[in-house]
Write a structure and sequence with these properties.
With about 140 residues, this protein is mostly beta strands. It has no helices and 9 strands. The protein has a domain of about 60 residues: Thrombin, subunit H (Beta Barrel). β1 and β2 form a beta hairpin.
Length: about 140
């Protein structure tokens, strides 16, 4: 959207002179550092919050998968560049799934997880839980 700048002037009613004037100024917008080529680099996909992905959908004939937790899922899953998926659940668990939707590992907290985990550059996740704790969890199933 282009910013249309226009000078605004108010004329005095009796004298016809300028009482005041102002020129709108363009303010800088917020920016966010994202990893080039990341399939879903930020919440709602991009800084415009479009929620639209450039990735194509399932191939015709491919059956979609589902994964059931012990209770509801109230947050957006985090998807890594390699297709791995991480999601918290009301059953107190953080799940690590393969791109085929199979459970690879789980990490139990003391309460509901209703926020999306943050994926760091070193393949660890940061997640908050309703048990008033924040956890740093490795995405590698071999590392506790």
């Amino acid at each position: 959207m282009k910013l249309i700048a226009a000078a605004v002037a108010v004329l005095g009613i009796t004298a016809g002179s300028v009482a005041w004037s102002a020129v709108p100024q363009h303010l800088p917008s917020a920016t966010s550092k994202t990893e080039p080529g990341a399939p879903w680099p930020t919440m709602r996909h991009d800084l415009r919050n479009t929620g639209a992905s450039d990735l194509r959908g399932l191939d015709p004939g491919t059956k979609p998968w589902s994964f059931q937790t012990g209770k509801g899922i109230f947050s957006t899953p985090t998807v890594a560049a390699d297709g791995r998926i991480y999601v918290g659940s009301a059953d107190h668990n953080l799940y690590g799934l393969s791109e085929e939707g199979e459970e690879v590992w789980r990490f139990e907290t003391g309460e509901i997880i209703d926020t999306a985990p943050a994926l760091l550059d070193d393949d660890t996740l940061i997640i908050g839980s309703g048990d008033e704790n924040m956890y740093k969890v490795s995405t590698d199933p071999q590392i506790p």
